[in-house]
Design a protein that fits this description.
2 strands, mainly alpha, elongated, transmembrane helix, single chain
């Protein structure tokens, strides 16, 4: 029995060897496959965690942008209000009206009557307009004025000017107030729009550096594992909020000083010239429709931004946002970053940030997004605020972000009545709290998409590439450039590539933007 069993095993040993080999190979293959599946699951989990972390950081970064704009906007507002002192012109009109009243009625009667309530015997065609202007905007102006205006609404007490100047006629004062009121509101819209985009660029570039620094920190093994490290690398550590080079990032952020103190005034000059050319021929007592006012507003925007698509694309906003290389040291000194004795050339890291910011500002994508947020702000001002407060037309739907024709806009109102709304809205546009104009701009989907591609651009130079989709931004949010609200559509529009690409074809921003548009086109077809 034993001998036969041995003989059977000996005759079948080859089969047993083959079977054992097959079983061993199958076991090893199974273990290899299980290991790969487990590794793939772990990698997918890590990627999901990383993307969620990136998305969370990005969303927090956008909230920081909003708070930053609200914090620094009042600086530019103060400079613009000081450069266009509508309140002084209003005070001159009040003073002249008081003088006319004193000549037509007795002084005792003036003391008993308010300046706003002119007696019927006074033949002032603009009496009601001046009263409307005072009641609509004078309280707001006096809260910010330097005391040169009246001490209260309609009080008629005007502080004399310290420096003598030639007395202007009533017509000249009304025209001056017309130009100043409109130009001030428009200037603040342009300033707020540019400040919003500049802040998005700055904080998203630095937010990208912060994210990369954290990724590198987590990926690098500690050099001394047994050493207890008490250094705080959490997000609440301000010195590590934007990467490791805190001083460079601090200087980089200080360059917003240029827009707040110089750029906004340059914009004001350009806007004032355009307003004079368009509204200069309009009589303040003239009654116009809301449609006519919208057309005049569009004419002003065409002169500032460009009347054609090509003009808008070639419009240079960089001089308003960043100083020239020869004035960078001056900005650092004025913003308190350096002194005359400590001035030094910009570090390579700072130089790279400034150059990348300049490329972003000069890109067609920047102009495209700027046009859209300007459309939303002007729509809120003209279609909602002016329509409701001056023309008594109910506000239009917020779904359209452009200055447009409104049904029932045949109602007319005096230009002087609209000036009061322009004056009051100027303070709202430049407000550092509860700013509905900033909220309207942030509702433009392309602004978030623009921030996403800035945040995810140029990762290939420093870390593994990440796309805008990793930030939770739907590629369908990237819309093609629109000419709505600024000029008539050009019949020979270029393709999407010509609309939304950088001049530098190797830019990571262009790549991300182009991929998003490609995905959008693919989904549409």
């Amino acid at each position: 029995m034993i001998a036969s069993t041995r003989k059977w095993f000996r005759h079948n040993r080859t089969n047993f060897a083959i079977g054992a080999g097959v079983l061993g190979a199958g076991y090893l293959a199974g273990q290899y496959i299980l290991g790969k599946v487990s590794e793939a699951r772990q990698r997918m989990s890590d990627d999901r965690i990383a993307k969620e972390n990136l998305r969370r950081r990005f969303e927090q970064n956008q909230e920081d942008c909003t708070f930053t704009v609200l914090a620094i906007l009042p600086t530019a507002t103060e400079n613009i209000l000081e450069a266009l002192p509508v309140e002084q012109t209003l005070s001159e009109l009040q003073k002249q009206k008081a003088e006319r009243l004193s000549r037509s009625v007795g002084p005792s009667e003036i003391a008993l009557s308010d300046v706003q309530s002119a007696p019927p015997s006074v033949a002032d065609d603009d009496g009601k307009s001046l009263v409307s202007f005072q009641s609509e905007s004078y309280v707001h102006a006096s809260q910010i004025g330097d005391g040169s205006s009246g001490s209260g609404e309609g009080s008629g007490d005007v502080v004399p000017q310290s420096s003598p100047r030639q007395k202007k006629t009533k017509v000249q004062l009304w025209n001056e107030m017309k130009i100043s009121s409109i130009a001030r509101a428009f200037t603040l819209i342009y300033t707020l729009s540019l400040l919003t985009l500049l802040t998005r660029i700055q904080l998203n570039l630095l937010g990208r550096r912060n994210y990369l620094a954290s990724v590198v920190s987590l990926a690098s093994p500690p050099t001394h594992e047994s050493r207890i490290n008490l250094e705080n690398h959490d997000d609440d550590n301000f010195e590590h909020a934007y990467g490791n080079d805190f001083e460079t990032n601090r200087r980089y952020l200080s360059f917003s000083w240029w827009l707040l103190h110089r750029g906004c005034l340059d914009i004001m000059d350009k806007v004032t010239i355009a307003v004079k050319e368009v509204f200069g021929r309009i009589n303040p007592r003239e009654e116009i429709t809301l449609e006519k006012l919208s057309e005049l507003t569009l004419e002003v925007r065409k002169k500032i931004e460009g009347a054609t698509e090509e003009q808008r694309r070639t419009c240079k906003w960089l001089p308003y946002l960043l100083p020239g290389p020869d004035q960078e040291d001056y900005v650092l000194q004025e913003s308190g970053m350096t002194t005359a004795s400590t001035t030094a050339p910009a570090s390579p890291s700072l130089r790279r940030l400034l150059d990348e910011t300049s490329d972003l500002i000069d890109s067609p994508a920047f102009t495209h997004v700027l046009t859209l947020i300007l459309d939303s702000a002007f729509s809120l001002l003209i279609d909602n605020k002016i329509a409701a407060l001056s023309y008594k037309i109910p506000p239009t739907s917020a779904s359209t972000a452009r200055v447009q024709e409104i049904v029932g806009a045949d109602a007319k109102a005096k230009v002087a009545n609209s000036l009061a709304v322009f004056c009051r809205q100027a303070h709202n546009i430049g407000s550092g709290a509860n700013n509905e104009y900033l909220a309207a701009m942030e509702n433009v989907r392309d602004l978030e998409a623009f921030a996403a591609v800035v945040y995810s651009s140029n990762f290939e130079f420093e870390a593994p590439e990440a796309g805008a989709g990793d930030l939770g931004v739907d590629p369908n949010k990237f819309s093609r450039p629109s000419t709505a609200g600024t000029a008539e559509k050009n019949s020979d529009n270029e393709g999407a590539g010509g609309e939304t690409t950088f001049v530098n074809t190797e830019s990571g921003f262009e790549s991300a933007w182009g991929k998003a548009l490609a995905k959008e086109d693919g989904k549409k077809h």
